[in-house]
Specification:
CATH architecture of the largest domain: 2-Layer Sandwich
Strand order of the largest sheet: 5-2-3-6-7
Number of domains: 2
CATH topology of the largest domain: GTP Cyclohydrolase I, domain 2
Bound molecules: zinc ion
Helix content: 40-55%
Shape: elongated
Structural class: alpha+beta
Number of strands: 7
């Protein structure tokens, strides 16, 4: 099942629309980037910058294309009836997103787990669900909740746990310039919230992650 939400040309990313409306929106986007370069004191006509407006428009369209998608788009038909009743966890899912306050990247890892209640989802789809919500303007707290909420909606499992650990370039490159501080967020639903043993097992597995970012 694939459904693309009706696109509002004024806000949809460049890659998501077709035809003349897309061309017009893309032209407008490119001229805004050209103007931004001027305001930064640059000459948009110098050789290195000549194609930058088009590249930026395409890159931002790509990096925010998740806002045109739903978790169900990402899962497709990869849902299966299954009586497995123990925890399923995918750890160390690479994650790249854009902070909505500065439009600078934040990146790190997501650890996603659930306890099925009659239905499981293809494991690779857990990573796809993370991408759907990461590829838009985000804050890490909301991203974490949205991934948990989507799994709860689609699978109706006995519980869901999501931990995200990420570095924010807006903190590392500017502002407080704290290069080594990692932000950790978690969202727990169902038995992950209510059953201390489940919660403990999940957090032990998540924090035992062999992260390249520590
Ligand atoms: Zn930021």
């Amino acid at each position: 099942m694939s459904s693309t939400r009706a696109a509002d040309p004024a806000r949809a990313p460049a890659g998501a629309r077709a035809g003349a409306a897309a061309d017009a929106a893309s032209d407008e986007f490119e001229s805004l980037v050209r103007r931004m370069l001027e305001l930064l004191g640059e000459d948009p006509n110098r050789e290195g910058l000549r194609n930058t407006p088009r590249r930026v428009a395409r890159a931002l369209g790509w990096l925010t294309r998740g806002s045109e998608m739903t978790a169900r788009d990402a899962i497709g038909d990869a849902l299966f009836e299954e009586t497995h009743g123990s925890m399923v966890m995918v750890r160390d899912i690479e994650l790249y997103s854009l902070c909505e306050h500065h439009m600078l990247p934040f990146f790190g890892r997501a650890h996603v787990a659930y306890i099925p209640d009659g239905r499981i989802v293809g494991l690779s789809k857990l990573a796809r669900i993370v991408d759907v919500f990461a590829r838009r303007l985000q804050v890490q707290e909301r991203l974490t909740e949205q991934v948990a909420g989507a799994l709860e909606d689609v699978l109706a499992p006995r519980g869901v746990g999501v931990v995200i650990e990420a570095y924010h370039l807006c903190m590392m490159m500017r502002g407080v310039e704290k290069q080594n501080s990692k932000t950790i967020t978690s969202a727990m639903r169902g038995s992950f919230r209510d059953d201390p043993a489940t919660r403990h097992e999940f957090l032990r597995l998540a924090h035992g992650a062999s992260s390249a970012f520590r």
